Amino acid sequence: MTRKEKTQRKLTGVALSTLLKFVDKNPQENILKLLNIAERFVGNIFPKKNLEAMKKVVKSGKGVYYDFAMNLLNDLDRGVLKKMILAMGLGAGVNGTKAVRANRDKYKCNIPFLILTARTRV
Length: 122
Hints:
This protein is an all-alpha fold. It is built from 6 helices and no strands.
């Protein structure tokens, strides 16, 4: 992991701790607020229909995905949850996809995503 990635991970971890405390106060309402904010920042990267589907699930307060999210928030240790989000969101989602694209261009083939993310430590 590069120095830049370590710094990025540390800063993201601090922000994530703050966000988790915010969500814990009123999960359903505050997750909706965060999705609305996220839409402004990732709207052109992340398909709008996916964000709308997430909002719909949170607003309904029911369903398998809602139950899964609430179970994660209620049942997982905050340190474990934070590491999981950092690994999947920052490690795999942000840095992993960049590595996939760069290596696709460099080697003129698709390298399996899991091989590239396996180098990322939690």
